[in-house]
Amino acid sequence: MTAAMEAGRTLAMGENEAARGGRKSIDAPFGKALARIGQQRKNIVGLTADLGKYTDIHPFRDAHPHRFFNVGMAEQNLVAVAAGLARTGKQPFATTYGVFASRRAFDFVAIALAHSNLDVKIIAGLPGLTTGYGGTHQAIEDLALMRMIPGLTIIDPMDATEIDAATVAMSDHPGPVYMRLLRGTVPVVLEPGYKFEIGKARKLRDGMDVGIISTGLMSERAIDAATALEKRGISVGVLHVPTIKPFDTHAVAEFAASVGSVVTAENHVVVGGLASLVVETLFDAGISKKVTRIGLPDRYIECGAVPTLQQKYGLTVEAVVERIAALD
Amino acid sequence: MNRNSPPAEADTGALKARATVLRRHMLTMARGQGAGYIGQGLGIADTLTALYFHELRYDPQNLGWADRDRFLLSTGHYSIALWAALAEAGIIPVEELVTYGADNSRLEMSTLDTTPGVEVIGGSLGHGLGQGVGQALGLRLDGSDARVFVELSDGEMQEGSTWEAAMSASHFRLDGLVALVDCNGIQADGPVVLDMEPVADKWTSFGWETFEIDGNDMDAVVATLAKARQRNGKPKAIVLRTLPGKGVRRIEQSEKSHFFRVDVSQWDSIIDEFEKSVGAGQ
Prior knowledge:
The complex is a heterodimer. Chain A is α/β, with parallel strands linked by helices.
């Protein structure tokens, strides 16, 4: 515990999703992947709204400066300019924080991009509780908001390997995409050969008693929680669902049917995001099963140190373990 | 059609006659629906005529031509004027104009980009200029000398995103971008509800080369579009002072000119009046 945490003070920019539990990590996996594929794909352009170095797009900016545009603090214009570039055959990757991309630029993502199915990728930093800056900066409801936009693909990756793979996959996929970004020093959880496919869930662990359906950084915690629970004699499976839209309803229903009870885990409010999708999916499939929802409460979160907030709001491995151990 | 840039010298007499044809088309369309954004359409008719039949470089047989000039109608509800221009330009059939605003028609009361010749979805005001900035950047990356013309309105300047786009256009020195700012003095709730003056000074202060003219004076429109061709590192704004309903006195004088609705018998007399005024040389 750092001195700042002991004093109960906010860590200024929050913490990177730094490697925990002895895992390796990679710096700026998104920007590195984009700079790499940008070597061959000359139509890729990068944009940001005054958050280049805070959204990890600086490796692309440094490698391809003539294809990089900083529009200043103007997120509506960020999306509009990206749309215009797409109409001239470019493939823009536009970065900002999730709160600004979803709340402030919503009409532009919906009408300027999705309505015309333009090939623009929105890369959204600070998802959920990955910053201590409070409600202005914590994108706690972005999945719910963006999910309502027809034709928009939504990805919530869990680690550096998946961010790299998803960056390539979304470039291969013509159409608008919204990806939540883990920035800075990002842990490597998945093996290098991991195959990411838009719209496909991945079973990361088999288990019978409880099945955790998770997305984003909560999938790493789900794996670690399952390992800990096994020692307590509880068999826990993990289905990682990196694509929120289109949702892999088949895999989710099949997985839910194979376990005793279902737990959802997301770095997002439990309203309108993964939990809601799972409940809708199970209901549609005629599966009647108790669903325990791990995620953020339906309210704005205060400022504070990220580890403190994640602990308080139940997003840590320990909190997931306790929630599941306490299930009937 | 015009594949050359800069265009040959303008025949303003022919352009004025063409503007009358566009107005006639618009009246036919509005009569068919009994209503429409006819005031705005009649007001912008001279500018669209000067663009489509003189200034713009495009090919109606090859709408996807990479080096075409783009015209973005940000005020999607001005579609009635765009449909008239696209029909006269040979991009959509003239016979289709009567479907304006009807079920299953491609000629919506507010533009969608699924209709041939439409470069952007207008109508959510404040979207057009930023998309024009993006297109101008993309064309420059490709080494194209094609230009981007964005029509927007005085009411639309109340959307903050317009100024986000304006700032970025001058920052990126997009001198192939031309904003056509239609100042017709009306918006949904009546006469412009928030004072936007001095309009030209605002654009100048945002780093644009600015012109201010009577947007219903064909000679002035043509001459100013020619001045705006200059590649001098600055985007161009042409502030067009237009009269909503221009050319049809009863619409010009209507307090309802934002969305004009009268019954069929009145449309017939309005069209009669228009034809008489045209016949009398206005």
